[in-house]
Design a protein that fits this description.
single chain; 9 helices; 70% helix
């Protein structure tokens, strides 16, 4: 059942905050449904899990593709925001490491969404190109910050870090690939000259909260 919301504004529209909450719930519910059901994700289930009506779902996402794209873009947006947050509050090499571990989590989510993404009528290529550009900018800024401190002594094309980690996910899509990718993050940073104490004995899932 759809949760009650404040009455309409004088213009006849619900407050923007209410609409934003509904949209966020729908995207979160769709993400979980896509991970569980893949290409068979049910819009009725998404609406039910989000606690809204199917009419509300279609008001935000008139086409099924729009909802699938929104889930993927939300994942990318969270990763982009995390890069700014980590740069602001962490030592640069630590910020780079933690973001790369979050990138591993992103790849894991992307694999869970792969079947649904494959059903997009126009295909996922344009969506992937846009996200690749945004993530390349993030890792480039993080690497430049780390190199400016002198803590990385070997030059590398920042995008190559993402390609190396992504290669693990594509070549070994099994239950162990994620742990291998997380270990690869430290191998890459140590190979670039990072101090061992900056990458050793840290949680493999640091997150972005203090």
């Amino acid at each position: 059942m759809e949760r009650p919301s404040p009455g309409p504004t004088p213009s006849g529209r619900r407050p923007r905050a209410d609409a934003a909450r509904n949209r966020s719930r729908l995207v979160a519910a769709a993400r979980n449904a896509m991970a569980a059901d893949g290409a068979n994700v049910s819009l009725e289930r998404v609406a039910r899990d989000a606690g809204v009506s199917i009419a509300t779902l279609y008001r935000h996402f008139p086409q099924r593709d729009a909802l699938i794209e929104a889930v993927y873009q939300d994942e990318v947006g969270a990763l982009v925001a995390a890069a700014d947050d980590l740069r602001a509050r962490q030592e640069p090499v630590v910020a780079l490491r933690e973001w790369l571990l979050l990138f591993v989590d992103f790849l894991d989510s992307k694999q869970g969404m792969s079947e649904a993404l494959g059903t997009l009528l126009q295909g996922p290529d344009a969506l992937f190109r846009d996200s690749s550009d945004r993530l390349a900018s993030c890792v480039d800024a993080l690497v430049r910050s780390a190199r400016a401190t002198g803590r990385l002594t070997t030059a590398i094309q920042p995008l190559d870090l993402l390609r190396a980690i992504g290669g693990i996910a594509s070549v070994s899509p099994n239950v162990d690939w994620k742990a291998s990718a997380e270990r690869l993050v430290d191998v890459l940073l140590l190979g670039l000259g990072a101090d061992a104490d900056l990458v050793a004995d840290r949680s493999p899932h640091p997150g972005t909260t203090p």
